[in-house]
Amino acid sequence: MARLVLLFVAGAALTGCNADCTVEASTAADYAAPESWLCHPDLDDDACTGALETVEVLPDNSVEAADRTVAVDPGFDCFYVYPTVDLRLRPQLHADLTDDEDELRVVRTQAARFAEVCQVWAPRYRQVTLGTYVGRADAVEPCFDVAFEDVARAFDVWAAASDPDRGVLLVGHSQGGQIVSRLLGFRSYAAGNEVPGPSDRFGEGDDEVCVHPGAVAAGEAPLAGAVFSLGEGSLLDLPADVDVGDADYVLYRDYFSANCEFGSAVGLEVSADPAAGDERSNPVPFDDALLSGSSGTHVLDVQFGMLDLVARAGAMGEA
Q: Is a pLDDT exceeding 90 seen at residue 233?
């Protein structure tokens, strides 16, 4: 069984909030029903196999279509748990699983490209809100217990439905990484910015780790391709002469590089590293407050290494 986990656990400085973890049993998902999943082989409207209109920005700043191809009958599965998307500041659970606009957006951004190499299973779950991370750990732990138990039940359903010899790749980010992780991951930050500090809150394991998504044994190495979402909520700052039209996503191939830094804090340092003659400018505003603070470029962790992660998943599956 192969496992890949992208893990970031955000530290929090505020304390004193109590969590509202009361939840009706009727809000629990029935994972035997495909509708309790965002991606599932028997789901008619599968978020991971639908169209992902993507354009690639080439080194001369021209663009071309770069849509992906969904694998037909792939030989292994990817079990994906999405990150925190409920940004309410009160510590509580996101119990209305039909309120899924944000979940669908992040699943399409982070998980759908894995459908090039595997069958993606992505359960809906009663995740904790962003505000849960500012509460006392002893007060909010019951919330995480609910979220974890949801995903554990979903995984049991996957295991019962799957061939025992069929491999599975575990993929999670942020809160999703906490839930699936007992393995490695990384968290990213922009070169020249603050390295995200260590945290003992809601963590998994005993040590901070970093693994370059495209070059496990290397130091600084290129990232094969970063894929960023466009439209509402996009963090990109694209030049006016880059015409992406109505595309949902944009690909920057062979533009960024990364290096695992191991000091007082550990993180994946990401740099814009265009080759000589490359006319592209960095579309990611590394000096933006959301990307340069103590959380680094956490919200773009998966996007920077997207092509590397999919390629590594495919190689692991073939092995």
A: no
Q: Which two tokens stand for residue 276?
A: 């000589």
Distance (Å, whole) CA 92 – CA 94: 7
Q: What beta strand segments (E) does the chain contain?
A: 37-39, 54-57, 63-65, 76-81, 119-123, 167-172, 188-190, 221-222, 225-229, 249-253, 256-262, 266-272
Q: Please indicate, yes or no, if residue 56 is contained in any of the structural domains.
A: yes
Count of domains forming the chain: 1
Give the tens place of pLDDT for each residue, 133-175. 877 777 678 888 899 899 999 999 999 999 888 889 999 998 8
Q: Specify which residues 92 forms β-bridges with.
A: 20
Beta strands in 28-103 (DSSP E): 37-39, 54-57, 63-65, 76-81
With pLDDT > 90 as the criterion, what percentage of the chain qualifies?
57
Determine, yes or no, domain membership for 12. no
Query: What residues make up the domain containing 103?
Result: 25-318
DSSP state letter for 194: P
Looking at 4-161, which runs of residues are DSSP E strands?
Answer: 37-39, 54-57, 63-65, 76-81, 119-123
Residue 220 placed within a domain: yes
Does some domain include residue 19?
no
Q: Is 302 a residue whose pLDDT tops 50?
A: yes
Contact (CB, 8 A) for 8 and 17: no
Quote the Cα angle for 25-29-32, to 5°: 130
